[in-house]
């Protein structure tokens, strides 16, 4: 098939009415010489054309001084010209002059047109025109975003299957442009997009429609009134029934966004809202004018989830899927739901996740080869588990709570004992007759199970609902064994009985202290698989407590001594748990003998004072830990604000291009064919990039260079930027297949950077916004943890260096507090006093 002909013309600068206007025109657009073929575009044509091109180049240099003069092709329909474009001109002026050029044959007014990059269809604006001109990109003159929005809405209304597929495919890209988006929303485009989503049941068109909606929701908080109530239910249904990754990925992102858009988030809209293109970063009014964006939230989404019984179980099944991307999105959605669950649905939702066995599925991911790829998401789930435990720890047990009352009733009934009353002959109520409504004397019910008094809710004051839940889980794991334990203790002399209730709560306290549940979060960078099975570890430790009590012949006065033994064993058994299996943990608790544990405990007491385990000290450490974490967080973010140079891996230039939709449709989409564009940042052709966080902490600005040089403060030297709202994850894995490229780039740059210092800002698991290689481990730690803490999604600490800094600051703070070194009454001299004269001059000089 012959290639369509393209008219390639040169033209002289247009004359204007005034000399200044003529010079302005010459500096903005000039024709290059006609070429016989594209391969010889660099050679000169006739002398007149060469002269005019040279004059235009000189005029451009005079107008933009340091701007590099480059010839760019501009295409309109079947006509192409070569132009010298002044990068200092507004885009509107460039378009107006292009429309006035006779060789392009434009008949319509300039206001109807826009300039786009011919390669990636990106809209050319005042912010990126200079960069594209310098890069020698080719442009095309097309319809303005406003016209495209009008035509797009009309095509969406047609409901023609083939037209819808192509339209929704293009809409994914166009919806991110503010001019297009505003007109699209004004003309009811979101209503049509939602209707399309509600009517489709699968296929690429549904994937493109969902991705377009996702991009709209990520770009602005305006126009959400077009999202109907049935839309949330449809997205939930899609996730419960669809399996295609290009459909589930945007649906998951939409559902996460809806969870994050509740009434509780409206108050923080000014600080936390995503700033769209062309919006003022400090606009507080914009948040107040978008109430529809905050009418969803967790409760609205969970209401629809309850209507789809298979939803949560489907998410659980996907955690075991061989598709890593599907695992990542499913676990990320679970994390979002856990992090934003409301108070009145907290118990219901967390109980449902426990019933389904989500923690068990996450533990399998830790053990799989994909654990490293999903590490940040798994650690975030780990933090959510600790947050849930902290919430239960702070929830008081009350008899009016039906769930609490049911747990207490179950514990009592499964003990299979009767309530008794005390008599003169039997003051402890051990062998008295069962209590009756008319009985006189102290009643014994909960004390028979090993609690200190009959007001059992007071027993759980310290451990709260977490303590009661662990007691109930212990009983449910083996009711017969539990009844046997209670019966065995009741048959012993009162002084020799192990109080099961107190022992259970003590074990909960030991485990909560070990995992620092009281703080509500952890900065651990390692997997903690056993924290996911808190109640099961509690059962193992409680059995160990009962065994140590029997083997040591303990009495009630020895309770603290046995507790110390159990604390020592828990510390030993859970040490380096990432490298242990559940079988190893069971063996630690079941096979350890009393003498061995006691000897180890005595050695530990020589180097560790039990003083540190007191409640007041633990509370102090928890407070100092939070202060240290916040201090390091501010320090890391300050590093981002100062900026740093990074090596750019050469492999980042080889990113997959987004495939065009097939006319036939159907079939399972591959990852490369996902609905999102592969990158929002152009591939780097230079080895160095300088990155700096903007003062409003919304964007990461950068510039490229062939070698490192001094960068002024501020953002004037950093023309490019990455919207941090688009960053879904900070991956510590080097870009795929780039290990050799990183080593080669580091060698060429003369630095010792390696693949272990590489990290990526990911918009999706296979879509990288930027690939960075730090120059040393300190820079790697500062930026990876700084970006993670800045995102505010759990504040996961990714590197050991940052975790060590937090721990060191906490330890120093503890020592200062315990020693009470305030320095308030210490006078620091302003100068040193002169030294006194020597008492004699009989100096002795040694012979050297």
Can you offer a commentary on this structure?
- With 848 residues, the protein is of the alpha+beta class.
- It has 4 domains: 7-143, Phosphatidylinositol 3-kinase Catalytic Subunit, Chain A, domain 1 (Ubiquitin-like (UB roll)), CATH 3.10.20; 146-276 and 288-356, Alpha Horseshoe (Leucine-rich Repeat Variant), CATH 1.25.10.10; 402-613, no CATH class; 628-810, PH-domain like.
- Helix content is 49%, strand content 8%.
- The chain has 33 helices and 14 strands.
- The longest helix is centred in the C-terminal third of the chain and has 28 residues, at 615-642.
- The protein is flat.
- The termini are far apart.
Number of strands: 14
Helix/strand structural class: alpha+beta
Note poorly predicted spans: 1-68, 268-290, 437-441, 651-680
Individual helix count: 33
Secondary-structure blueprint:
Elements: E1 7-9, H1 19-28, H2 47-64, E2 71-76, E3 79-84, H3 91-100, E4 113-117, H4 129-134, E5 139-143, H5 145-158, H6 161-174, H7 178-186, H8 189-199, H9 204-219, H10 229-241, H11 245-259, H12 263-266, H13 269-272, H14 285-288, H15 297-307, H16 310-318, H17 324-340, H18 346-356, H19 358-367, H20 375-393, H21 402-415, E6 420-421, E7 443-444, H22 456-459, H23 464-477, H24 479-490, H25 500-514, H26 534-551, H27 559-573, H28 582-591, H29 594-607, H30 615-642, E8 644-647, E9 688-693, E10 699-705, E11 720-723, E12 729-731, H31 739-749, E13 758-764, E14 767-773, H32 777-791, H33 800-819
Parallel strand pairs: 1-3, 2-5
Antiparallel strand pairs: 2-3, 4-5, 6-7, 8-9, 9-10, 10-11, 12-13, 13-14
Helix pairs in contact: 1-2, 5-6, 5-7, 5-8, 6-9, 8-9, 9-11, 10-11, 10-15, 10-16, 11-17, 17-20, 20-23, 21-23, 23-24, 23-25, 23-26, 25-26, 25-27, 26-27, 27-28, 27-29, 30-32, 30-33
Protein name: ELMO domain-containing protein
Keywords: Apoptosis, Phagocytosis, SH3-binding
GO cellular component, one term: plasma membrane
